[in-house]
Amino acid sequence: MIKMNMKKTVSLLLGLGMGLSAASAAWSAETLEQVMKRRGLTQKDLLAAAKTYTPTGGRDEYIVISSGGQSGQLIVYGIPSMRILKYIGVFTPEPWQGYGFDDESKAVLAEGRINGKDIRYGDTHHPAFSEENGDYDGRYVFINDKANPRIAVVDLKDFETKQIVVNPFFKSEHGGAFVTPNTEYIMEATQYAAPFSDDFVPLSEFNDKYRGGLTYWKFDKKEGRIKKEDSFVFELGPYSQDLSDAGKGPSYGWGFTNSFCSERYVGGIEKGRPPFEAGCSQKDTDFLHVTNWKKAEELVKAGKVKKAKGMYLIPMKQAIAEGLLYLIPEPKSPHGVDVVPDGSKIIVSGKLDTHVSVYSFKKIMDAIKNKKFAGKDPYGVPILSMKDTLHTQVQLGLGPLHTQMDAKPCIAYTSLYVDSQVAKWDYCKGKVLDKINIHYNIGHLMTMEGDTVHPDGKYLVSLNKLAIDRFNPVGPLHPQNHQLIDISGDKMQLLYDMPIPLGEPHYAVAIKADKLKPEIRYKSGWNSRTDSKSKWRTRAGREKIVRNGNHVDVYGTLIRSHITPEIIEVTAGDEVSIHLTNLERAEDETHGFAMYNQNVNLSVEPGKTVSATFKAEKPGVYPYYCTEFCSALHLEMQGYLLVAPKGYKATGAVAEGQKYTKADYEKQVKTNLETQAVIDSVVAFITSHNYKDFPPVVALVEDATDQLGFAEEAKKKSEEFAAKGDYQNATLWAGQWWQYQVKTADLGLRAKTYLEEHGAKKVK
Ligand code: CUK
Ligand code: CUA
After folding, report:
1. Rounded distance between C-alpha atoms, residue 262 and residue 282, angstroms
2. For the chain, which residues make up each domain, given as ranges?
3. How much distance in Å is there from the Cα of 410 to the middle of ligand 1?
4. 3-state DSSP call for residue 42?
């Protein structure tokens, strides 16, 4: 058996010789103290650094899904390291993931069309994890689009967007996405009132024809999709409904939705009318909407609710008659509504009130039971009194917005937008415990699993609206600033500033990382958007080009380092569908596919099948290539689409380049035999260890076995040509044989390294 170190092996495989230079600069001898002095760091900074720094290969304890604001995307990052891991394309195309470029994801984006129009952005605000018994189950995340009322479903198996639903009644929304404790429903409330119809309605009819609403989207957890046909919508008064939250524990079955501008004021500054902001903040209180979704569901199931626009619509009259809807005054220009973990209380913050108001669910129920109403709104909705339903009010500071919960009972954190602070307080006793300054103008805040019935506490992230002077300047448009705060002790401690350079994230949610079990590859030939086998999947050796009238289907494959087919010939005017399957099984072996001038740009992860359909209009030469640096011969992963003019007769002839002789052939064969010796040594190492106990290694070995099989085929071809004295083709095929060997060895070495790093044991 040949013994070789890794560097030598790689050099041989890449044909590099042993010229790799020895590690040059020695580590500088600076001490910790010297570094602190040079960088102006304090002991406190060091402590903060030690709490967040994650050495190479280290993992985070929590995974955050943050809204991506106007980018229409989601942002994934880790806590405590605050390292960004991924952007997920949701409402907008995302080229890296091929999202909005392959036919499969285009179909998802097409679900989000409104009135036949492609919507090319989204304003994402509130991500929500799916829940089981009020705890995150790590399966799905939902996100709303405030501007174009839509909800999207992202599957955490692969962090891909699977579905977009459009709210057919709303023209704007904000109170979503919030889930009920078993993800029975996803809440989505309107923001700006508008007619439920799609026609023109003058503002003079605002009170009668403009409406707010609250949708409970039915979610099928098994299928992982929203069921529009089983979802229902509450018609609400034309107030500006705001955030929502679902009840839990004793308040399970109920939902809570804020509103502002219950004045129903319509501005018109250009006509001399006082502006919206004046008319919408006159009253001292607005309305907390209390809805009974459980009872609404029963009515729906009993066939007592009429359908409209493909879902159930509960008119206000019916909601009032059935006891599904109540209002409670809340001060003043409210924003966040948050149900505490045990479900007994509901915390409301008013932007223009220095207090947070804590409502008691029991008191709300008592008032409803005793029909103790303080009056009705103009639409006849019963109003409970604030006095009857309040548990307590606590003065926190200026501009309270949102509240999150601690692991410790009764402890909550509320963001103070105007004061630029986070307040830590006790909602049972009504006492302020601590405050910390943030930079600057905090919107939402988030604690670890802070929305669940079992919050983890530990860390808090302050999602700040302004960054101003926190980072190196990058022009007038600044990033946002997510500040990580340690909340494990009595005093809050600021740990880290992270710029978020992708829209204005409003809210974020954090889940324990070990609850997520994402897949490392798809089942072979998989349509990831429909979660089923793709009808276009293609196996190795079965690649083909099929013409059907003016439509050409290309059944292709990708594997290091070639695209099959390498030449595609069509005629101008043809519609071309290129279907590509990535044959790799190894982790992280994604291939891309980009083509000149056709807007074809695909990301094909291991196992995935994607398609790109386009019209080949103009005759010409269109090179294509792999966009992921997948292997040493990645740049050679290329091909041509030839669009011939109509009537052109293809001969299939190709110009010859370099000529090869018998000596060339023999030289290549010699290299190949040496390489085979290296492969044998790696194989010996792997098979002499318990590699079958390591699934990633098993996948690598499977891929390596495939490559070795291809090598064998190429070897045979080269020998056949050599036997005929055709050293041109014999040399080229011998080169291809070597290519497959290199890939085999690359996979083998990755497997070997993995085994060494993961303490594999010798078995024989
Ligand atoms: S909102 Cu932006 S800070 Cu959309 Cu929840 Cu409060
Ligand atoms: Cu595949 Cu580069």
Report:
1. 9
2. 2-18+30-52, 62-267+274-515, 526-644, 662-757
3. 23
4. coil
- The C-alpha torsion from 82 through 87 and 92 to 93, rounded to 10°, is 150
Is the CB–ligand 2 distance for residue 679 below 6 Å?
no
Supply the pLDDT for residue 633: 87
pLDDT tens string 611-669: 999 999 999 999 999 999 998 889 999 999 999 999 998 777 888 889 999 999 999 99
So what's the pLDDT on residue 10? Answer: 52
CATH code of 526-644, in short, is 2.60.40.420
Is pTM beyond 0.85 here?
A: yes
**Rg, Å, the chain Cα set:** 31
Name the DSSP letter for residue 630.
-
Q: Which of 123, 125, 173 to probe ligand 1 with, by most ligand atoms within 8 A of CB?
A: 125
DSSP 21: P
pLDDT of residue 425 exceeding 80, the answer is yes
Closest by CA position to 744, among listed 645, 670, 677, 693: 677
| Residue in this structure with the two tokens 């860390």, named with its chain if needed | 459
pLDDT of residue 13: 55
The residue type of 218 is K
Residue located nearest, by CA, to atom 1 of ligand 2: 591
Fold of domain 62-267+274-515 = Methylamine Dehydrogenase; Chain H (2.130.10)
Identify the CA nearest to 162 among candidates 84, 231, 220: 220
| CA atoms of 529 and 163, how far apart (whole Å) | 8
DSSP string for residues in 187-249 = EEEBSS-EESSSS---GGGHHHHEEEEEEEEEEETTTTEEEEEEEEEEEE-SSEEEEEEE--G
Q: Determine which helix (DSSP H) or strand (DSSP E) holds 331, and give its type and residue range.
A: strand 325-331
- Residues whose CB is less than 8 angstroms from the CB of residue 395 and which lie 6 or more positions away in sequence, other chains included: 354, 355, 432
Mean pLDDT, the chain, rounded, equals: 94
User: Any residues with CB less than 8 A from the CB of 6 and at least 6 apart, and which?
Assistant: 749, 753
Q: Which residues line ligand 1 (CB under 6 A)?
A: 125-126, 174, 243, 335, 401-402, 443-444, 506-507
